[in-house]
Amino acid sequence: MARLESEVTREIECIRRVQQGDGEAFGPLVERYQQRIFSIVFHLVRRRDEVEDLAQEIFFKAFRAIRSYNFQSSFATWLSRIAVNHCYDYLRKVRASRISYYSEMTEESARELERKLESPRARGLDHGEKLSLRDFVSGLLARAPEDDRVILTLKELEDFSVEEIADLLKLKSSTVKVRLHRARKRMLEDLERWRQEGK
Amino acid sequence: MDCKEIRDLVSDLWGGELSAEARQHVSKCAGCEGFLRDARLAQAGFRVLAEEAMPEASLGFASRLVRRLQEWEEKGARSEFFETVGRRFVYATLALTLALLLSLVLPTSGPVRGVAGADFLGLQSNSQSSQPDVIGGDLSDSHDLIPGRLPD
Q1: What is the CA radius of gyration of chain A?
Q2: Which of A56, A121, A191 sits opposite B38 (nearest CB)?
Q3: Which residue of chain B has the CA closest to A63?
Q4: Separation between Cα atoms, residue A8 and residue A2, nearest integer Å
Q5: Which CATH architecture has domain A1-98?
Q6: A82: distance to nearest CA of chain B, Å?
Q7: Do A117 and B8 touch (CB under 8 A)?
Q8: pTM, whole model, 2 decimals?
Q9: Which tens digit of pLDDT belongs to each residue from B44-58?
Q10: ipTM score here?
Q11: Residue B47: which of A23, A122, A191 has the nearest Cβ?
Q12: Any idea what the Cα angle at residue B29 is, between residues B45 and A196, rounded to 5°?
């Protein structure tokens, strides 16, 4: 508890120093949050080769805007918000060049996978099955509209609570719940439509 | 329960237990059965994705970034200075050019300008005629020197 408090105090001190023009003090903040930002970027963008560049751009934006940070929300939330917005813009930019298909999954293999999914953490799956599930969901996310993709990623991959997402996206919790519900439904209906068109 | 309600329920519960009524519908409806299966596969797929190894920052990412930010700040301050000075220089040059153009384009005297100016000066000199000049002379003496003055 005392350690956590001292970390928070050190963080506040670093932020204030950067706000006063000491660029060196930004280093510890980058070190502390780089993994979090890498995770958000990777889950949202899903391009390993782009993650570091995008993370760098996000920290750059944060550095430029740090004087406007007023300690209303936690620094982690403020920084994550910048990351989500940056990735959202990136996704919109690359949308035109993005061609996504659902991976092939036969009805039979889907049933087989479903049977194996009795285990709550999918531990009963072998490497190949995990790969096909990964491709399947990557396809679902790639085809989803950016807003749906952001909210699904934050909930399902970043494991944020509804309240945390609301804080991050500056929305009401009830709005986040509705958007999550719609995003899931849209995603599954899109898959269903795709399957029907393919038949 | 109809298919729409089932789909809403599946999207809402997202892995939660369906009611007996809902399960009964799903067991008889191929479309809803497929929808539920896809939902379960998607949930499992999300779990697989969440467990995937994350790309790590390259060695020295933070220090490299801070160095770049400092360079950018210095460059930014320099370019801001030159930008401000440059902008002022451009404004000053524009103002000078405009003044020069006006002095070239506008005539020094003319039918309207000359008369109006003379009129104004004439009136002014009339009103000042009773006042003694600083060097002791009378301003009325200089009336004839004003070009374009209307005759009395």
Answers
A1: 20
A2: A191
A3: B69
A4: 10
A5: Orthogonal Bundle (1.10)
A6: 17
A7: no
A8: 0.72
A9: 999 999 998 989 999
A10: 0.84
A11: A122
A12: 60
